[in-house]
Amino acid sequence: MSRDVKVIAISAGPERSQQYVLARGEKIVVGKVANSDFVVDSSARGVSQRHAELYLCPPESGKGADEVVLRDVSTNGTGVLAQGDPEGRPQCLPLRKGSAHTLQPRSQVLVPLNTKDWGEAEDV
């Protein structure tokens, strides 16, 4: 039986994205600590040492390709910009420690969620 894999691209601001191949049972760790898979600049305010994890999960329907799931493991929360309301404005879905959300293609993740200015948050 073949395992589903996804290619995940992560970037911080205008920097070129880094690509990761993610298979079921593996995870990508985002955080300040040096052994994170994607290391966020240590001067970034509000980003935890281990802030968030990305992993694959079978779809709820049991049919189709695995889905990418984001789980918050931080103290300051993580945000996901959703598709938006009927008028096209993006909606922020807050995630708190231990909560998870299935990401849609081209999702924008905000690290950390708790920031005075959304412009300060890192795009992951």
From TrEMBL:
PROSITE patterns: FHA_DOMAIN
Protein name per Swiss-Prot or TrEMBL: FHA domain-containing protein
Lineage: Eukaryota, Sar, Alveolata, Dinophyceae, Prorocentrales
Annotated InterPro entries: FHA_dom, SMAD_FHA_dom_sf
Residues covered by the FHA domain: 28-80
Family matches, as SUPFAM superfamilies: SMAD/FHA domain
Pfam families attached to this UniProt entry: FHA (PF00498)
